[in-house]
């Protein structure tokens, strides 16, 4: 998850920076609404990027955990290699659709809640 979190927060910060620098708010009455929209997009895209990064290892982990044979290989990279040989690149991303469709709204909500909590506590996030 460490690598996935690096990707998540890198994408989140980049998208936030890009959107804030390219969106001009017509009125200060809409700044909070714009910030929420930016949080939704940047958090959602960060979550999708996280799962695109870690999903192959998660697939391998799931196969290891659900294999009833206790003598099966426990090395996730060996299992991942086996999946790739058997099913190709698509096999490494089994379940991508449901995972991404869950990741976008879940991470968007988390980021928006986090940013609103920071504002309510008076903590500056520049």
TrEMBL record:
Molecular-function GO term, any one: L-ornithine transmembrane transporter activity
Keyword flag Calcium: no
Chief localization: mitochondrion
Any single GO BP term: mitochondrial L-ornithine transmembrane transport
Source species, domain of life: Eukaryota
Cellular component, GO annotation: mitochondrial membrane
InterPro entries: MCP_dom_sf, MCP_transmembrane, Mitochondrial_Carrier
PANTHER family assigned to the protein according to its UniProt record, in alphabetical order: MITOCHONDRIAL ARGININE TRANSPORTER BAC1 (PTHR45624:SF15), MITOCHONDRIAL BASIC AMINO ACIDS TRANSPORTER-RELATED (PTHR45624)
The name this protein goes by in its record: Uncharacterized protein
Organism: Glycine max
